[in-house]
Design brief:
This protein is an alpha+beta fold. The chain has one domain (13-61): Roll (Ribosomal Protein L24e, Chain: T). Helix content is 16%, strand content 42%. It contains one helix and four strands, in the order E-E-E-E-H. The chain has one helix spanning 52-61, and strands at 13-18, 24-29, 33-39, 45-51. The chain has a two-stranded antiparallel ribbon with strand order 1-2. The protein starts with 12 loop residues before the first strand and ends with a helix.
Length: 62
């Protein structure tokens, strides 16, 4: 299972790590996803990865 947000689809980003001498090597940034319990339409509880931005939005709705 990959670390991708189940709500918005945010995942891993890639780019360059630039040193002081301006050499570039590839690196990646992972999304800040947390494993949480969600209730689906049937009322069953399922585990999913959700990014912290979506978690804040879900807290504001309640």
């Amino acid at each position: 299972m990959s670390r991708v947000c189940a709500i918005c689809g945010k995942g891993q980003l890639s780019g360059n790590l630039v040193s002081h001498s301006n050499r570039k090597t590839r690196r990646s940034w992972g999304a800040n996803v947390q494993k949480v319990k969600l209730v689906n339409e049937n009322g069953a509880i399922e585990h999913a990865y959700v990014c912290t931005k979506c978690l804040k939005k879900m807290d504001n709705r309640a």
